[in-house]
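On clarity, I found the account of how folds are encoded harder to follow than it need be. What matters is that the chain and its backbone geometry are given together, residue for residue. For the editor and my fellow referees, an illustration may be useful. For illustration, here is how one protein appears when written out as sequence plus structure tokens:

___
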Amino acid sequence: MKLYKLTDKLGRTRRTTKWGKGVTHKAEKGRGDLCTNKYIHAYTDPVLALMMNPIHAGIENPQLWTAEGRISKTDGLKVGCKTLKTITRIKQPTVTINHRFKFALLAVMEICKKRSRFGEWAKGRLANPMKGTPGEQKMVDKYYNKSGSGKTKKANDRIKAKYNIMGAAKELMRGRLTAATCAALAEEIGLIDDSIDFAALARKAMKK
């Protein structure tokens, strides 16, 4: 299966594993958690790889490679392979902080009702990430005050997600939003629902 792999500027991961054109590596034998040496990490989409890099590999100025491998495990965001082969280094798409915010927002929208005050706010911010709306602070305060009041853990997770993404919107307008914050928000949604097609959301976030 065609996959994508990030390396550092020297074509390495974990500072010691060297990748390149036609290079194959195998993970250790056995099964275990995805974030162990039992699996080699990759992504199903190049944009998704770049979106999640700040909290996954955390590679500064990464190189992007096409790769081939069979998926053995996934958490909905990254995949794990027992064997992976890098094929060709490719040009990276330009991912801005606005793109990253939209990706996180789209993820939150997946677990929230579309026909609601929050849904309307989200649609507006998706169309214009830098545009605030009247009464926005009251909505933020509402979700803050409701924190922990849900009847189930999932309900509480939704409230927290709404509060966090609205906070991220404010930080975006102030020029203080970080790539890591956006990636962490998306990962939190993945823990709530790992059936979400995050690759599709990443591609959608890149559209005007």
Q: What stands out?
A: DSSP finds seven helices and seven strands in the chain.
